[in-house]
Amino acid sequence: MSKFWSPIVQQLTPYVPGEQPKINNLIKLNTNENPYGPSPRVITAIEIETGNSLRLYPDPQSKRLVDTIARYHQLKPEQVFVGNGSDEVLAHTFQALFQQGKPLLFPDITYSFYPVYCKLYGITAKMIPLNDNLEIDVNDYTDANGGIIFPNPNAPTGHGIGLDAIEALLKKNTGSVVVIDEAYIDFGGESAVTLIDQYPNLLVIQTLSKSRSLAGLRVGFAMGNAELIAGLIRVKDSFNSYPLDSLAISGGCAAIEDRTHLEYTRNRIITSRNQLTTELEALGFNIIPSQANFLFVTHPQHDAAQLAAQLREKNIIIRYFNKPRIDQYLRITIGNDTECTALVTALQKIILG
Ligand SMILES: *Cc1c(COP(=O)(O)O)cnc(C)c1O
Fold it and tell me: Could you say which of 257, 276, 300 is where a domain stops?
């Protein structure tokens, strides 16, 4: 605490991201990064861009990227907003589209940035418990609200819900904005983008960080009714005119355009996810069926925190959340074949001795 901090800053509880240690030979399965790297076309596009004028400011509207995303998702450019990672898009969404006077509904177990943004923007959080299987049940989202947000598939559980459930929620909740955070949608979920033209209060947020393997480039985007997008643009233009640099705009376009690379890498991750599920189940783990690039697992005989510590001794890092209801779970990112094998071998040693 410092007396120089503003009253708002005094009461913040900042988000703590998964660690990014600089250790050689570390098997890093803690932040849901994609092991396969981005499309080679992204690197070429960025190299070409460095030869252009970095002297100049980038396009404040990132129009090339907005148009590319609109084409990919069969939307109009007015229905697309881009930002510096989906975290920034989320931040603007909290400020622009949730009603400060009413509670925002989101799951008790979910992306832990949501309560952080609530504090930053003076929004009351009302957490709706996941059901006993740690799943979102949209029938529980009936309270009066100034907005609803959850990831689909949810994080850190990996559990996804169908479009029928999302549509049912949208039908019952027409008076406030419903945000679906689709950070992991490309790994097997059903995107709500197809509902945008029918529901003016639906905002869908995606990112290039996970399925396009570009967490380092910081590109995220929102899709929805043009009115919602205009609200986001008002906040963006009151905050930072150039959230995306020239390299991110060029690299982002190349990433979206290379559908083959996305298909290939996502299929590899889904194959590994299925195989890892089988192997961990054989070691006695219970696993929530995942539609994401990670598994959320628990072992009836082994303490989760202790397992995480034992893996760390073997240079493997995974994510452990010391929070009610999930303190016996581990979140494990799907790595490449070598990483998955190393993880299973290490767990076999720990569990079978
Ligand atoms: C990773 C993640 C994000 C943030 O993605 P960035 O685009 O890298 O900021 C947002 N929401 C969820 C649920 C995530 O898991």
Answer: 257
- In this structure, are strands 80-83 and 104-107 parallel, antiparallel, or unpaired? unpaired
Report the nearest atom of ligand 1 relative to the CA of 88: 9
> Could you report the per-residue pLDDT of 215-259, keeping only the tens digit for each?
999 999 999 999 999 999 999 999 999 999 999 999 999 999 999
Domain count of the fold of the chain:
2
| pLDDT single digits (tens) 25-37 | 899 999 999 999 9
Provide the 10 A C-beta neighbour count for residue 63: 12
CB 77 within 8 A of CB 187: no
Beta bridge partners of 80: 223
> Over the stretch 147-186, which tens digit does the pLDDT of each residue have?
999 999 999 999 999 999 999 999 999 999 999 999 999 9
Q: Are residues 249 and 122 in the same domain?
A: yes
Q: Are residue 172 and residue 238 in the same domain, yes or no?
A: yes
Q: How far apart are CA 194 and CA 228, in angstroms?
A: 16
Pocket test for ligand 1, best of 204, 207, 221 (most atoms within 8 A of CB): 207
User: Is pLDDT above 90 for 3?
Assistant: yes
Q: Are residues 251 and 265 in the same domain?
A: no
State how far the alpha carbon of 146 is from the alpha carbons of 51, 62, 179, 226, 309, in Å. 46, 30, 12, 19, 41
Q: Is residue 27, in this structure, part of any structural domain at all?
A: yes
Q: Is the CB of 152 under 6 A from ligand 1?
A: no
Site to substitute for ligand 1 among 15, 86, 211, most atoms within 8 A of C-beta: 86
Q: Please give the model's pTM, rounded to 2 decimal places.
A: 0.97
**Structural domain span for residue 340:** 18-37+260-352
Verify that 215 and 93 share a domain, yes or no: yes
Calculate how far, in angstroms, residue 262's C-alpha sits from the geometric centre of ligand 1. 18
CB of 85 shorter than 6 A to ligand 1: yes
180 is a domain residue:
yes
- Pair 29, 109 in one domain: no
Same domain for 298 and 246: no
* Pair (231, 150) in one structural domain: yes
pLDDT over threshold 90, residue 19 = no
Q: How many CB atoms lie within 10 A of CB 100?
A: 14
